[in-house]
Design a protein that fits this description.
Length: 175
Amino acid sequence: KKSEDKMMSYSTDEGHSYGEARIYGIEDLFNSENYIIWCAGEKDRLQLKQQGYNACTVTAGEGLFKNEWAVLFKNKTVYICLDNDETGKNASITVAEKLYKITDTRIIYLPDEVGEKGDVSDYFGRLGHDKSEFDELMQKATRYKYESLQSDEGEVFEVHLSEASLSKFAGKKVK
């Protein structure tokens, strides 16, 4: 099949499913470390592992985080470090919304030098930053706290479809 999609999910006649969203690097959630970095993709996860960090990601796009996964992160400090674009920033909030009640959730913002759509792989690879510099970004990451959106009676929030069901939009008009 010719497609513009990066990935394609399918099932075989024998019932095997391929392409389902999974946590890549889930084993890092079960080691004795008390933190994990949630990153934007398999390549970023490998880059973080190469630098010596515990990291995991989703196999189906950075904006996806299943509600049932949250319990796996309980009592950990979760650093969310997604792509440096609008999609990545929105996805960071989406993930944080699902974790902040049971974890110490922090969002790492990469410096502007990574560029639009830049990521962890750009930070370490193309730009040549090292572990100590990334440690500083982790230290600067502040704890995520839910902030209810205040709106005037008629204000409409323009959001991505994946965000429309977030609790912060309950009772609000969304487009």
